[in-house]
Design a protein that fits this description.
alpha+beta; Alpha-Beta Plaits; two-stranded antiparallel sheet; 2 helices
């Protein structure tokens, strides 16, 4: 099971990273906080202090077009906000 799917790189998460040393990741829905902490520490070589998780439920969407109503659904996902100990930092742009 791949725990970390992708990092959340938005303006809000960048500000949280600068101010509070917090970073966001989209993670597997079945992963718990202990598994998330272990995966981040192994991948980035940092020490995780706190892991907060939240689950987002997929929403129904519909559009009215010329050919009729198109309905669909956005996917559900789980997001983890991790706080690192003071002095550690994750740089997502180092590989570019």
């Amino acid at each position: 099971m791949e725990i970390l799917l992708k990092p959340v790189v938005t303006e809000k998460m960048t500000k949280l990273g600068d101010d509070f040393n917090c970073y966001g990741f989209i993670v597997d829905k079945r992963a718990n906080k202990i598994q998330i902490k272990k995966a981040i520490e192994e991948m980035y070589g940092v020490t995780v202090e706190v892991v907060n998780t939240m689950r987002y439920v997929g929403k129904s969407k519909s559009r009215y077009t010329r050919t009729g109503i198109i309905t669909g659904k956005t996917s559900s996902y789980k997001k983890a906000i991790i706080t690192l100990v003071e002095g550690d930092k994750i740089d997502f742009y180092s590989n570019i």
